[in-house]
Design goal:
Elements: H1 3-7, E1 10-16, E2 19-23, E3 31-33, H2 36-50, H3 82-87, E4 93-101, E5 108-113, E6 118-121, H4 124-136
Antiparallel strand pairs: 1-2, 1-4, 2-3, 4-5, 5-6
């Protein structure tokens, strides 16, 4: 995996139930999520603000896009150190989320597991299904 790909990863740490924390070089500090739906919404919001990976379709809204000027595909200069991201562990489950593209208004990418294997997904529902299955085990 290249350095740029590692910089785009999200370390997902599930602590209890389906809630937990997210670590990434793309944020200043970890943020929490209450459940898998909340995780999806918070990461999507971050992807939109940072425009990384770039969406293949523009999201339309009735309100002005005030954040458009702030969008950048570059890492924030004060993002989390790589050591902090890689050292994070969840009490129940830990995995890395790699979103490679955002076509058809959904995500495509990989879930990287701690044992070195990875599982591909083609949409948000596929991602949620993979994670829910891992949480059931």
């Amino acid at each position: 995996m290249t350095a740029k790909e590692r910089d785009g990863l999200f370390r997902i740490c599930v602590d209890g139930g389906t809630g937990g924390r997210v670590f990434s070089r793309r944020v200043r500090e970890p943020f929490s999520f209450a459940d898998l739906g909340d995780l999806l919404l918070k990461i999507e919001r971050l992807l939109e603000v940072q425009d990384y990976p770039q969406a293949f379709q523009a999201i339309r809204t009735f309100r002005p896009d005030r954040e458009k000027a702030e969008r950048t595909t570059q890492l924030p200069p004060d993002g989390m150190p790589l050591e902090a991201v890689e050292g994070a562990r969840g009490e129940r489950l830990t995995f890395d989320l790699q979103i490679t593209t955002r076509r058809n208004a959904t995500w495509q990418g990989f879930v990287h597991w701690g044992d070195g294997t990875k599982t591909a997904f083609e949409n948000d529902l596929g991602f949620l299904s993979i994670v829910a299955g891992a949480l059931e085990q």
